[in-house]
Amino acid sequence: MQNIAGVGLGLRRELIDDYLQAEHVPDFIEVAPENWLGLGGRHAKQFAACVERTALFCHGLSLSIGGPHPLNLEFIGQIKQFLKQHQALLYSEHLSYTHDGGYLYDLLPIPMTEEAVDYVAERILKVQDLLGQRLVIENVSTYAMPAAEMTEAEFVCAVLQAADCELLLDVNNVYVNSINHGSDALAFITAMPPERVRYLHVAGHQQISPDLLIDTHGAAINDPVWELLRATYQHIGVRPTLLERDFNIPTWQQLQSELQQIQQLQQEAGDV
Fold first, then answer.
1. Separation CA 255–CA 242 (nearest Å)
2. Is the pLDDT of residue 239 over 60?
3. Which of 84, 170, 153 is CA-nearest to residue 117?
C-alpha cells in the first residue's frame, strides 16, 4: 500500500470549488463514504476531479463497530466497492457505536471492559476479512464512560492488539477527554503503540464549561491542542495529519494557514 506523508484536509462540499481552483492542494483528502455513495451527475464529477488531484483517505460514520446489532454486510460491500472504485488508500472508522435498531447520528461510547474488547475485536476482524484490508480505528471523544473496567488507553491498546488493526489517533479527542474526565492527555499519547498509529486527526472544539468540551470540528485549533500535537510527534514520530473542519467553515486561506502550522510542526519534529 502506498504510504502518504504530510498534511490532509477533510473535504466538505462547501470546499470543493476552492479546492479545485487552488494552485496547491493538501497531500491527501479525507471523505466519509456515506456522503458520496450512489451520487451521480455534477457531484460525482466534482468528486472524481478532487480525487485526481491528490490521495484519498476514507473515514466512515456508520459501521457501528461497537454496536449490539449484526454488522451490515450489504453496507460493508458498498464500502468495499467505493474504496476500490476511488483507489482509497485506507478506511478508518470510530471506536464507538452509531446504530441501535436505527442510526443514531452520534458516536456513543463502548463500555471499556474485557468482554467489550473481545466483542469489538471479533467484529473488526470480520470487517477486515470482508474488505481484504486492515481497518484503522479512531479514538473518540466521550462525555460519559459507562461501566468502565479499564482506562481508555488500556481499552484502545487491547482492541488494537486483539484485532491486529491500526489506529487513527485523534489528538483533539485526546485533549477533549482529558478535560472531560480529568485524565492525562500526554499519558494517553505515550501509551499508544507507535507502530500501529497510521495517521492523526487534529481539530478545534467548543468549550461549554471549564470541565466540559465538545468535539465540534467547528473552530480553529487552540494552543493546548497545538502543543499536544507537537508532543505527539515527539513521542510517536511524525505521521500524516488531517485537519478536520465541519462547521463554521472559514476561508480557504484560513484553512491553508492551519495546514501550514501543521507542516511547520512536522518539520520541526523531523529536525530533532
1. 11
2. yes
3. 153
Spatial CB neighbours of 67, under 8 Å, sequence gap ≥ 6: 97, 98, 99, 100
pTM: 0.94
Helical H runs in 146-218?
152-163, 171-181, 185-191
Q: Residue 202: beta bridge partners?
A: 243
Check if the beta carbon of residue 94 is closer than 8 Å to that of residue 137: yes
Contacts of 64 (CB under 8 A, 6+ apart): 72, 96, 97, 98, 99, 103
Q: How does strand 103-108 pair with strand 97-99?
A: antiparallel
**What are the helix (H) ranges across the chain?**
16-21, 41-53, 73-85, 114-131, 152-163, 171-181, 185-191, 223-236, 252-271
Chain position carrying cell 507502530? 195
- Looking at the DSSP bridge assignments, the partners of residue 91 are 58
CA distances from residue 79 to 38, 52, 63, 88, 272 in whole angstroms, order as listed: 11, 19, 10, 11, 40
Give the whole-number percent of the chain exceeding pLDDT 70: 95
Could you tell me which residues are beta bridge partners of residue 10? 30
Measure the CA dihedral 174/93/6/152, to 10°. 20
Say how far apart CA 242 and CA 188 lie, in whole Å. Answer: 19
Show the CA angle centred on residue 90, arms to residues 84 and 96, nearest 5°.
115
Most confident of 100-104, 145-149, 187-191: 187-191
Strand, coil or helix: 213: strand
Cβ pair 265, 230 in contact under 8 A: yes
> What pLDDT does residue 211 have?
86
Domains of the chain: 7-271 (3.20.20.150)
pLDDT digits (tens, 9 = 90+) for 99-139: 444 444 456 778 899 999 999 999 999 999 999 999 999 99
